[in-house]
């Protein structure tokens, strides 16, 4: 069932120099501020991201509450969708590609702190298919 309990997060993204396959490479800097909006943090929902580095994503997510007691919660989310870069990059030779990721959210009532892994790749449609990997540290609020 689709859920609606909107969550908005603001964070800092740091580009990783080792891609999802464990290969080290000189990475194009995609560090920046990321704003993320979700329809919810539990169950099936939608997710959208905008980065000051010119990266954008939209997709589906599924969240599972791992721990909840009183006002404290711990949630894990998996994500998959489509992404766009406003300029070609060596890691992303196409401007449109796929995205996958995972996120951990720690909450106190409606306040959330999160850590997200965000992977963008063209899935081998065009070579080179290095992909771009980022870690995003976030904080936000559920409405």
Structure description:
With 143 residues, the chain is mainly β. It contains no helices and eight strands. It has an eight-stranded antiparallel beta barrel. The two termini are 19 Å apart.
Distance between the termini: 19 Å
Q: Into which percent range does the helicity of residues fall?
A: under 10%
Note the main sheet: 8 strands, antiparallel, barrel
Rounded average pLDDT: 91
Which structural class do the helices and strands define? mainly beta
Taking pLDDT < 50 over at least 5 consecutive residues as the criterion, the unreliable ranges are none
Determine the strand fraction and express it as a percent band.
over 45%
The overall strand count is 8
- H/I helix tally: 0
- Output the radius of gyration: 15 Å
Q: Which H/E pattern describes the elements?
A: EEEEEEEE
Strand order, biggest sheet?
Answer: 1-2-3-4-5-6-7-8
Q: What is the general shape?
A: elongated
